[in-house]
Amino acid sequence: MKEFNIEKGDIITITGAGGKTSLMFSLAKKLSNLGKVLVTTTTKIFVPKLEDFEEMKISDKKFKGLGKNIFIYGEKIENNKVHSLSYEEIFQLKEKFDFILIEGDGAKEKKIKAWNDTEPCIPNFSTKVIGVVNLDIKDLELKEENIHRFELFKEKFFDYIEGKVEEEFLTKYIETGDFFKNFFSKEKYIFLNGIDGEKYLEKFSLAMKICNRLNGKYKFILGSVKEDIFFRYKATDAVVMASGYSRRMGENKLKLPYRDTTLLDYNLEKISFYPFYNTYVCGRESWVEELAKLYNFKYLNNEKAELGQSESIKLGVKNSEGEGIVFFTGDQPFLTTESILKLYYNFQRYNYITIPRVEKERFSPVFFPEDKKIELLKLEGDTGGREVIRNASLISFVDFYNSMEFLDIDTPEEYENVISIYFEK
User: Fold this and answer.
1) 377: left (phi over 0), alpha (psi -120 to 50) or beta
2) Which of 69, 165, 257, 322 could form a cystine bridge with 235, CB 3.0-4.6 A?
3) How far is Cα 309 from Cα 354, in angstroms, rounded to an integer?
4) Mean pLDDT confidence for 138-146
5) How many CB atoms lie within 10 A of CB 248?
6) Could you tell me which of 110, 28, 18, 137 has the C-alpha nearest to residue 72?
7) In the chain, which segments carry CATH 3.40.50?
């Protein structure tokens, strides 16, 4: 499975809480198309359904299932749970299987846990470890009934007790938790599960904030076992192009009044709440630089602004530290957080050029994957990224219903229209 970089011969231990067993069997089913899969545990797992395995071997007894190429091995069954093999027994089986999946942690069906001295149970011959965190715990109260090994948890995360699961706690929980205790390989993955349901965009936004903060520490995979969605986190930078001359407007449109501030200030404030890795502002005037600093954005002075919009694009690309990049204009006041997150989610999931569309008409902002950066650096003049888009073989369109949301302002008439809509609201 490409997201976890799984290859034949891999021995993968899964730890954490909130979907370990479900993830293990989801991976097993995918890998069973490529070879023989052993599913086992170093703790205990519930007896699987017949369709989840071809054969289950418990001690010297064998049970036939309805699946194919998936084999369950355990020492015994007690209280409807398969009990673990020894590390040595698992190691001796590795030549018989193409892939081995091991559940190496227990959480008593709770989605938050602390680890005792013997947990997690990760064999030293594991090639990869996947730590599972379920984002369904967002806003969950941090109290005993919701946490496995609460007394140990309380010692480590005392400052958060009786609070709720929010970004700050989750970041520390992932950073300092024992998902990978005594496992020293680089192949460490955190799977942020549960990005589904009505609140999937909220959970996606939370996931991106955490990934941005811990980027480089682990390899992050986002998605939902329930919906069979898995995608790799890609650090994504935003570039705000604010160095144009507004020739059709007759004055700098970004400085025009809007909602008790300026058009640019209003848009930068909104962008500051979006979960981007870095945000850059390309400008050519001191007041733009001051605004960028106000929001802790990185200011890029565009000394070639007279050559057209492509110079802002190239300046942003040259300074970008992320894999993906999105370009905003500073004059789209009706953009909503929900729409930006829909575009962002789509880009993270598919990693194609991602464009908003209303009734076949294309708008901005546009997201570009890392492999388009070289083409973006070759742009000239005032064409923006249209040439790169035109040459792309794969484009992901996200359809919306209201084109007004993507309105930008180029003329006095359009500005007056925007102001009148604002007052109507």
Assistant:
1) alpha
2) 322
3) 19
4) 95
5) 11
6) 28
7) 2-232
Q: Is 412 a residue whose pLDDT tops 60?
A: yes
**240-243-247-250 Cα dihedral, nearest 10 degrees:** 90
Q: What is the pLDDT of residue 423?
A: 53
3-state secondary structure of 230: strand
What pLDDT band is residue 94 in, cutting at 50, 70 and 90?
Answer: very high
% pLDDT > 70, the chain: 97
**pLDDT over threshold 90, residue 233:** yes
Instruction: Please give the class, per CATH, of domain 2-232.
Output: alpha beta
- Tens of pLDDT, residue by residue over 257-281, are 888 899 999 999 999 999 999 999 9
CA dist 110 and 149 (Å) reads: 10
Residue 61 confidence (pLDDT) = 93
Band of the pLDDT at 410, cuts 50, 70, 90? confident
pLDDT digits (tens, 9 = 90+) for 4-26: 999 999 999 999 999 999 999 99
Taking CA atoms, 397 is separated from 269, 338, 367, in Å, by 26, 16, 11
Q: What whole-number distance in Å separates Cα of residue 86 and Cα of residue 4?
A: 25
Residue with the two structure tokens 């955490």: 210
What span, in angstroms and rounded, lies between the C-alpha atoms of 365 and 331? 11
End-to-end CA distance of the chain: 49
Q: Which CATH superfamily is domain 236-424 in?
A: Spore Coat Polysaccharide Biosynthesis Protein SpsA; Chain A (3.90.550.10)
CA angle 105, 109, 113 (to 5 degrees): 55
CATH 3.90.550.10-classified regions of the chain: 236-424
Which spans in 59-132 are helix H? Answer: 87-92
Q: Which residues contact 204 (CB under 8 A, 6 or more apart)?
A: 195, 222, 341, 344, 345, 348
Spell out the residues 6+ positions from residue 405 whose beta carbon is closer than 8 angstroms to its own: 334, 335, 336, 339
Mean pLDDT computed over every residue of the chain? 93
| Angle 7-27-369 from CA coordinates, rounded to 5° | 70
Evaluated on CA atoms 365, 370, 373, 376, the torsion sign reads negative
For the cut 90, the answer to whether the pLDDT of residue 1 exceeds it is no
Q: pLDDT confidence of 319, banded at 50, 70, 90? A: very high
| Distance from C-alpha of 293 to C-alpha of 286, rounded to nearest angstrom | 11
**Two structure tokens written together for 245:** 């001359």
d(CA 323, CA 368): 9
pLDDT for the residue 414 = 75
